[in-house]
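Go through this one:
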Amino acid sequence: MAGLIRREDIDAVRERADLREVVEQYVTLKTAGIGSFKGLCPFHDERSPSFNVRPQVGTYHCFGCGESGDVIAFLMAMEHTSFAETVEKLAARYGIELRYEEGSGPDKAETGRRQRLLDAHKIADEFFQRCLTIPEAQIARDFLTGRGFTREHAETYGVGYAPQGWDHLVGHLRNKGFRDDELKLTGLFSEGRRGIYDRFRGRLLWPIKDMTGNTVGFGGRRLYEDDQGPKYLNSPETQIYKKSQVLYGIEHAKRNIAKKRQLVVVEGYTDVMACHLAGVDTAVATCGTAFGEGHIKIARRLLSDDGTPAEVVFTFDGDKAGQQAAVKAFNEAHQFNAQTFIAVGPDGMDPCDVRQHRGDEAVRGVIESKTPLVEFVIRRRLHDWDLGSIEGRLGALRATAPVVAVIRDGSLREAYVRELAGWLGSDIGEVASAVAQAGKSGSSRSRAQSTTPQQGSAPQGYRGAGPANSQYSGAAGQGGDVASLTPFDRLGSPGTDSGLHSTQSGEVPSPQYQRPDTRDPAVMMERQALEVVLQHPTRLTAEQWEEIFAVRFTAPAHQALHDGIRIAAAEASDPKLWVESVRREVPQPLRGFVSELAVTPLPAKTEEHLDRYCQEILNRLVELKIQHEKANLLGQLQRMDPAEPPEEFRRLQSELKDLERRRRALLAVD
């Protein structure tokens, strides 16, 4: 079992990774003060930039939506990768060797083989794309043009061409230093008596990529009439390519899926391209296999259940195979925390045909006119029975009642009971009883999946209007989110769950830690001091650190941050790890608040002004502490009994004089 990544190696990644460099791959940043940058938030729509980045302390925070964290959290949110995947990706990028604990970690030899496979696919991808421009590839270019795709479209989706012949790619990879024993593992070659030869020959190719954007396989479309192979030929499964765990187009669609809370599943590579170009940029396709459990995990990872409505739309051909695929999708629908729909193109056309013959708007219309999947399945089952006979209606009721019984939403279930009664011409009470009995049987899910109806004929043209925009999501979904940050949490680092998003401006972090009211001058002073300590820890002297540690903050949230600072300071080493160390030591609901204070712009335009500001704020905080201590001593003097020993009176007087000297010294510094 692979172990957890060592804490010191994770910290090394945070220290080495350039937050600004990583963020600027997704966000245009502009200078916003000394060491600060600002841009439009990638996590929500806005017109005025409120997304702040401070590379020196490795922290970002959006004052609009509250998203915050470090370089790892940012990349996880943008790429929808797990914590371990993100750390490993950053480590590879910045040349950091990771070590593992609580297990042996990945086998180095296996890791090396995997990387060689990825390298070979990357080179092959580039090779095929270049070959699309050679004279021989005119047939491939004509195929794309005939379906409404331009050269720019092909480049966007990495479409390539495999030349005719037996050893073009073999020779190219051998020249790049790959051995035949390595090439045999890639799935890019077949093997005969004379050795290995190119698997893809004379075909139009689409690269298949994983969630992190690595090319892991290819799908090839037949172009020549004398090609005796299948119409579509995919890479065989390898160490890096499992067809049940990848979705074509996911690298283009994943951010839109997460943002729009929609996943559209189509059947082919050109369908994905057509959908995206028509504005349906949440479309993906399976690679030569049915949409199954592995694909559902990807979908759940992107459509993590945060309470926001989400939908999964399946597009299938109107033929028998397409209907069977829809039923299979319905049988898996209980694993989604989302509404599930089916969309069928006019005259059974797929999205690519719709775009080619009717335009982009028609493609969007197909998706918008989707039908709830539960309604589709009910209608299909009704179609298999002779509703003109008593026996047929009874059989149809028995076949469809389990389908209605698995609808979790009670109101929606009742609505479908009424609709089903109308479609059957039966009494509502009779249908409700059958549905209730199917639900009580404890096997409504398995019975709903059953597809063994009697043969019969349904009345032609019999169509009823089912409930639109349904909330159907199948039976109770599996608990937990596959995008769980478990490795992150087990290591004690802050996650990026809702607790980090609850510190938006004006919001309350939690009932225990109310947002401090900065209309109080003392509370405002506390906040400003925490901003300085978090943003510029290296500007504090040892004496100032001691003074800061001794301060008692009045606002509970500020005091909790202060406690975290005291703990983190004992292990602080690098400024880029400082804020993350503090975040680790504060209660979860306040971790976003730490990031907010760490990126809040300070009122200084030059280094000299900044240094002066930091000193003034810290001195005022200490002065406030001295004033509180003086007030306590004066109170003790006023309450003293005249009969008490004079030594105690003189001691209190001496402490008051010392405090006043310290206060005046601070004023002299100002």
